[in-house]
Design a protein that fits this description.
With about 290 residues, the chain is mainly α. It is about 75% helix and about 0% strand. The chain has helices at about 10-20, 30-45, 55-60, 65-90, 95-110, 115-120, 125-155, 160-185, 190-215, 225-230, 235-245, 245-275, 280-285.
Length: about 290
């Protein structure tokens, strides 16, 4: 029986019913959310770490501006095939292992980018920069798809929106920090190794936390009745249902187009403004 909106139980009543029906919530759900939020934050900072100082990066490595743009653009290109794979991975291997793999990809990519400074005699630094960015790009799809899954499996109904919001908003927060931090750190070309090293720190911490603190994909006892039925459709069946859903297709095209425009503009903002006489710091968003 569906209750009218005014008669639906509040959070206190829901918790009481949950205790009666043996639904439980676990404090470690917040640890999982913290790890996922830090991972999303770190991945976003790695994405845009080069864009705000593209001119100095290009001059230091003797690269073209187009090559520097590809260091950010690879995230957008990789998200198309890796996004489909990420859906299958989350449903097949579970949230815990998907997050751990994502954290290691993110950390490995952040370290791989620094190899031109750590290893002498490298003839083609762009290959290492692009290789590192590509590893981080593969991790992106997993991390942006995970908050909704985490909220559905670990959080009671009255906390799902909050958990999903925290995990999702960590990504644009990382974009903001990267736009502010990179030009603040790189005042001259000799500061580039320091900038790359600083971006390794949150990636390394997140990788350690994910490996040591995430012990299971689902809680021993579901947090609510809906969590029991939160399993997805079979992979191919789910894709067919989505492609046949006209409302979803319209929403995906409109929302995806907006995200694409925002992402492209974020990656090119420094180059658009600096040719008009603005400095790298001034080109960062307020």
């Amino acid at each position: 029986m569906v209750l009218p909106a005014g008669d639906r139980p509040g959070a206190d009543v829901t918790q009481a019913l949950g205790a009666l029906w043996d639904y439980r919530v676990y404090a470690r759900r917040w640890v999982f959310l913290l790890v996922l939020s830090l991972l999303s934050f770190s991945n976003a900072t790695l994405w845009l770490s080069f864009a705000p100082v593209a001119d100095m990066i290009a001059h230091h490595f003797l690269l073209s501006t187009e090559q520097i743009n590809w260091l950010s653009r690879v995230y957008l290109v990789a998200s198309i095939p890796s996004g489909v794979v990420a859906i299958w991975v989350l449903d097949s291997v579970g949230l815990r292992w998907a997050t751990i793999v994502c954290a290691w990809l993110n950390f490995a990519g952040s370290v791989f980018r620094t190899l031109p400074f750590m290893v002498g005699g490298i003839q083609d630094p762009f290959a290492f920069l692009m290789g590192g960015q590509s590893l981080c790009a593969l991790a992106q799809s997993l991390v942006v798809f995970s908050p909704a899954k985490l909220a559905a499996l670990w959080f009671p109904e009255h906390q799902r929106a909050t958990a999903n919001m925290i995990g999702t908003m960590s990504n644009p927060l990382g974009i903001l920090v990267a736009n502010l931090l990179s030009p603040a750190l790189v005042k001259k070309e000799e500061d580039i190794p320091m900038m790359l090293g600083i971006y390794i720190i949150p990636a390394g911490i997140t990788c350690l936390l994910a490996t040591a603190c995430l012990l299971e994909s689902v809680p021993p006892t579901p947090p609510s009745a809906r969590a029991i039925h939160s399993t997805s459709e079979k992979f191919l069946d789910g894709l067919k249902l989505l492609l046949c859903n006209r409302a979803y297709v319209v929403l995906a095209v409109c929302f995806g187009g907006g995200i694409g425009i925002f992402s492209s503009f974020s990656a090119l903002l420094e180059q658009v403004l600096c040719v008009r006489g603005y400095s790298n710091v001034s080109a960062a968003p307020p």
